[in-house]
Design a protein that fits this description.
With about 190 residues, the protein is of the alpha/beta class. The protein has a single domain, classed as 3-Layer(aba) Sandwich (Dihydrofolate Reductase, subunit A). The chain is about 25% helix and about 30% strand. It has four helices and ten strands, in the order ββαβαββαβαββββ. The strands form two sheets. It has an eight-stranded mixed β-sheet. Strands 2-8 form a two-stranded antiparallel sheet. About 20% of the residues are buried.
């Protein structure tokens, strides 16, 4: 049985030119020295309360491996929240909250995620996000634009996606110059 209140969010961070990852996978470009005086301020308490609302994370294997590498310097970003990694490869699981899923994406969403979780975030990678859109399995896209043009890297979207209507639900500009847009995916 599907939980009617369940929501699948595609969470993406991109440069202004639509790049979600540099070729070397560095994330230093996420940090910005920009200052937008009229922007919203987010406290650590605000961020912690927001993250507690996420019941489950879903990611691809390359995003997982990158997150593991980053965790050596920054800590594991997903805490003890259940995390499902989609992969057909044998991956080293370093946390009890992480599991690998190698089956059908529709089955995962409709038989595992929606009945069990209220707020699921898909946090990468590009192919996984595109598959959620192609199969109409996501409810919203939360896109944060960092004030930088990278020029080269992995693009957010390409010409393989079908046309998809969206409805803007929310828009927030932050003090650091980042802009977050939340779109409902029209079904």
């Amino acid at each position: 049985m599907t939980n009617a209140a369940s929501k699948i969010t595609l969470h993406l961070v991109a440069s202004l030119d639509g790049i979600i990852a540099k070729k070397d996978n560095s994330v230093s470009w996420f940090e910005t020295a920009d200052i937008y005086e009229k922007g919203a301020t987010v406290t650590e308490q605000d961020a912690a309360a927001f993250l507690k609302m996420i019941d489950c994370y879903v990611m691809g294997s390359h995003t997982y491996e990158h997150a593991l590498e980053l965790s050596k310097s920054y800590g594991w970003a997903y805490g003890d929240t259940p995390t499902i990694v989609l992969s057909k490869r044998n991956l080293a699981l370093e946390r009890n909250s992480v599991e690998v899923f190698a089956g059908d994406l529709n089955t995962l969403v409709n038989e595992r995620l929606k009945p069990s979780y209220k707020n699921v975030w898909v946090v990468g990678g590009a192919e996984l996000v595109k598959n959620f859109i192609r199969h109409q399995l996501a409810d919203e896209i939360r896109l944060s634009i960092v004030p930088i043009i990278l020029g080269d890297g992995l693009h957010l979207f390409d010409q393989t996606l079908p046309e998809q209507s969206l409805r803007l639900k929310d828009l927030t500009a932050y003090k650091n110059g980042m802009v977050e847009m939340v779109y409902e995916i029209k079904k």
